[in-house]
Amino acid sequence: MSFFERLKRAASAEWRAYSEHPFTNALADGSLNAAAFRHYLVQDYLFLIEFARAYALAVYKSPRLSDMREAAAGMSAILDVEMNLHVKLCAGWGLAPGDLERAPPAVEMLAYTRYVLDAGMRGDLLALKVALAPCVIGYAEIAARLAARPNALAATNPYRVWIDEYAGATYQLVAANARAQLDDLADRYATPAREADLIGIFKEATRLEADFWEMAWRVRGHDMPAG
Asked: Percentage of residues in the chain with pLDDT exceeding 90?
């Protein structure tokens, strides 16, 4: 069993609450309130900025040159690719770059990103990557599950672009590489004595990811699906 699978098994309740949150299921059947999705998109833009900082921290925390290069590539992918894709997706929902840049950060967004950065500052590269894993790997697992649902990728589903982006081969490869890197770091630096602490980091990061869905899910109820 991979290190990530061991983490996920130890945090099974938290992982289920995150990966099967009603927000995700509403993406698949197209019933999500459009206002909830727009709120999510705005906060996810701010989230990506903070995650780029986490990868910058990963460069600093890297014990090997190969680790530094991997972290730098991850930061570049966020700043130069993923954020541009996100802005394009937001434009399709009537959100201009200025709307994203002027938006105040939600408490839930700050709580999660500050937790990740703090885990990295206090710990080593492995601790930081454990804190990042629910997002980086979790989005791939969630999107793959949603994509398998009937009509999730149909032209009539307004959320098909989001699902397709994270279920697609490009992002699935990103997640697979993240799993492999996590396993490599665990082989180097995880010990039985450390595992309980690493599981604790993973559980908390997963719980905060679920809170991020919940933040958007609460927006204006759920009786107004996107048209």
From this structure: 96
Q: Alpha helix locations (H) across the chain? A: 3-10, 12-19, 22-29, 34-61, 65-77, 83-91, 97-102, 107-122, 125-147, 160-167, 169-189, 192-217
- The answer to whether residues 144 and 136 touch, using CB atoms and an 8 Å cutoff, is no
Q: Is the pTM of this model over 0.85?
A: yes
On whether the CB atoms of residues 85 and 23 are closer than 8 A, the answer is no
DSSP string, 35-76: HHHHHHHHHHHHHHHHHHHHHHHHHHH-SSHHHHHHHHHHHH
3-class DSSP state of 98: helix
Angle between helices 125-147 and 3-10 (to 10 degrees): 80
By three-state DSSP, how is residue 106 classified? coil
Which member of 135, 141, 195, 214 is catalytic?
135
d(CA 149, CA 61): 40
Domain 3-217 matching CATH 1.20.910.10: the answer reads yes
- Would you call 90 a catalytic residue per the annotation? no
For residue 135, indicate whether it is catalytic: yes
Q: Residues 112-162: pLDDT tens digits?
A: 999 999 999 999 999 999 999 999 999 999 999 999 999 999 999 999 999
Q: What is the pLDDT of residues 61-100, one digit of tens each?
A: 999 999 999 999 999 999 999 999 999 999 999 999 999 9
User: Is 163 in contact with 153 (CB distance < 8 Å)?
Assistant: yes
Place of tokens 């570049």: 76
